[in-house]
Write a structure and sequence with these properties.
- The protein has about 250 residues and is α/β, with parallel strands linked by helices.
- The protein has two domains: about 60 residues, 2-Layer Sandwich (Alpha-Beta Plaits); about 160 residues, TIM Barrel (Alpha-Beta Barrel), CATH 3.20.20.450.
- Helix content is about 50%, strand content about 20%.
- It is built from eight helices and nine strands.
- The strands form three sheets. Strands 5, 6, 7, 8 and 9 form a five-stranded mixed beta sheet that branches.
- α5 runs parallel beside α6.
- The longest helix has 23 residues.
């Protein structure tokens, strides 16, 4: 039954003259092993459905008791994440990019970390999926762009040679033509020249963002940094080459 449901959604729906593609995720609970009431069975099937989404969508998953523990932990992460944004519990590590011939630092990659009150320093693998699902990824991306620009400008003010700082963002900033204005604002507030800012798309969210990327970069007249818009197009080309040449998920 679940296979037939998924196969029916694999075909596009025709509305007027438009083809609409919809994906489905199926969660299954079985009476009486997974519950003896309709309420419990529906709750456990819902838990299994969210697990199916985490496995890449367009698949089905059966409920198991271990999923309750995972769902509870995920809920804790989401609740803590909301507080973390308000409390500014995030920090950035900078990974140096070194020219092997001159042995000089030519750039730095900004890597976000979460200073969790109980669990210590957490890498993005522990909180990015929850941030994307809750919509908290947008303020995190905006903060990271602004903070990376400010830090790069601080280095220059301290007398260090200018270097390019690279920031990984999710596709949240590619919706509604917001990436270029957000980056422009970060540059203006920090005083950093646009040639010292570079960004890429987090691989965890890259596939979902492709349809919006091309739409956003084609509007140079909407921002006050024409050079920034050109760099966005160039950076997009690099990111797409990277996506085509690597199937491994990013850890940062």
């Amino acid at each position: 039954m679940s296979r037939r449901i998924l196969e029916s959604f694999a075909r596009p729906f025709l509305i007027d003259t438009h083809e609409i593609f919809i994906s489905a995720s199926v969660g299954i609970s079985i009476y009486p092993s997974d519950g003896e009431t309709a309420e419990v069975l529906l709750k456990n099937a819902d838990t299994a459905m969210y697990h199916a989404k985490e496995q890449g969508r367009s698949n089905c998953q059966f409920y198991s008791t271990g999923l309750n523990a995972a769902a509870s932990e995920r809920l804790d992460v989401e609740n803590d994440l909301r507080k973390a944004v308000e409390r500014r519990e995030f920090l950035i590590y900078y990974q140096a990019k070194v020219d092997v011939r001159s042995r000089r630092i030519t750039g730095a990659e900004a890597l976000i970390r979460w200073r969790h009150l109980r669990r210590g320093i957490l890498s993005p693998a522990h909180f990015l999926p929850a941030a994307i699902d809750t919509g908290l990824i947008r303020p995190m991306d905006e903060w990271m762009l602004r903070e990376a620009c400010l830090q790069s400008r601080r280095w220059q003010a301290a007398g260090l040679a200018p270097i390019t700082v690279s920031v990984n963002v999710s596709n949240s900033l590619f919706h509604g033509s917001t990436l270029v204005p957000t980056a422009s604002k970060a540059l203006s507030e920090s005083g950093l020249a646009s040639q010292y800012l570079e960004w890429g798309i987090d691989r965890i969210d890259r596939d979902a963002g492709h349809g919006h990327v091309h739409h956003d970069v084609g509007r140079p007249e909407e921002n006050g940094h024409p050079a920034l818009d050109r760099r966005l197009r160039n950076r997009l080309f690099i990111v797409e080459l990277s996506a085509a040449s690597s199937a491994e998920p990013a850890q940062n």
